[in-house]
Amino acid sequence: MPRMNRRTLFGIAGAGAAAAAGAGAVLAAEHVLPASVGGGPDDVVPFRGARQAGITTAAQDHLYFVALDVTTTDRAELVDLLQRWTLAAERLTTGAEVAVDGAIGGHPEAPPQDTGEALGLPPARLTLTFGVGPSLFTRDGVDRFGIADRRPPKLIDLPLFAGDAIEPGRSNGDLCIQACADDPQVAVHAVRNLIRMGFGTTAVRWAQMGYGRTSSTVVGQATPRNMFGFKDGTSNITAEDTAGLARHVWAAAEDGADWMTGGSYLVARRIRMAIEPWDRTSLLEQEEIVGRHKGSGAALGATDEFAEVDFSATRPDGSGPLVGMDSHVRLAHSSTLGGVRILRRGYNFIDGTDAEGHLDAGLFFIAFVRDPGAQFVPMQQALSTKDIMMEYLVHTSSALFACPPGVGTGDHWGRTLFGNPA
């Protein structure tokens, strides 16, 4: 007997409310442990290094993500902002104010240079990760900043997938900044001040806050849970898996864009979850949909969360596979996807309720990949058309950004793309 579509049954398919406003050296720069495995709120994640922080960095507890449109037509003005952003970002990640005079050190009759809400707070392992979207290169066929020929072949326009309800107003963007920290105020303060610096050059297109990481990016972090109550990202790529990172995450020269070598591609998807229908679903059905036990996180029929999933196991009555053909675990597994893997770095979100009183909540999915067209697109095509969990999900936001390699001493965000200023 086919399952009833819960989104139809409970009438909650709306899009929801508006959004809230070489590897060893790399590990030394990014592999900062969270409090649960030896770190603490006073820890500083180095801002400069071969890779941008905030990718393989041990996932922090909070996120503030912003996508921006570039409003200037002056290339030099944009590059100048990226230089100033870089210096400010480096200060912010150490726990300092955005500028020397800060919130209270300037002229009392002038607006403060820093908004001040992070005064007295520790660095909280703040990381700031920068990316550029396809529209920065061309818009309506126009080469906006003389860089159209430098658009990476891997920086594609993401397609629509089955069941998508994408809202253009909170999708895409010319630039993005991902702020992650163990204190939400630290993350918000950083993005707020960078936005302020960009006034007249950039404007916020959309933003999303997230809490409660839904992935582990280093060995030693416990697997977190999503809004459905299940452990999420058990088989995620970690910072210690240098071979996996080289194959699936870090862009290489042979990928067709030299300036992206050592960088990665950030996929962002806001996924609203049908919380109330899910909460009315039996535990047995929930576990069959996911393909894992809710308590341990182990695949059905197993006891170890990290044991290989046995897709050949059958139900005791022989009626079919123990891990269903339309279960999330089977369809998202690398063996089903031809070996494709991704580095997940998502967060839970709650943005209030909709007009019917249902929670506007779910997963803000972030993944870093080497080739979005060969990794994320086939994975999402399979999930959107076959995964029984899609009865409880609707994707409302979609974006892809190219995140360049890290910044060295004297370097700045975007320098590998734009070159040194004249």
Automatic annotation (TrEMBL):
Q: What is its EC number?
A: 1.11.1.-
Where the record annotates domain Dyp-type peroxidase C-terminal, the positions are 223-407
Q: Which cofactor does it need?
A: heme b
Q: What cellular-component terms does GO give this entry?
A: cell envelope; cytosol
Enzyme class at the top of the EC tree: oxidoreductase
Keywords from the named record:
Heme, Iron, Lyase, Metal-binding, Oxidoreductase, Peroxidase, Signal
Which residue numbers delimit the Dyp-type peroxidase N-terminal domain?
52-211
Point out the signal peptide segment. 1-28
Per its UniProt record, what NCBIfam families does this chain match?
Answer: Dyp_perox_fam, tat_substr_1
Family as reported in the entry's similarity comment: Belongs to the DyP-type peroxidase family.
Q: What is this protein called?
A: Deferrochelatase
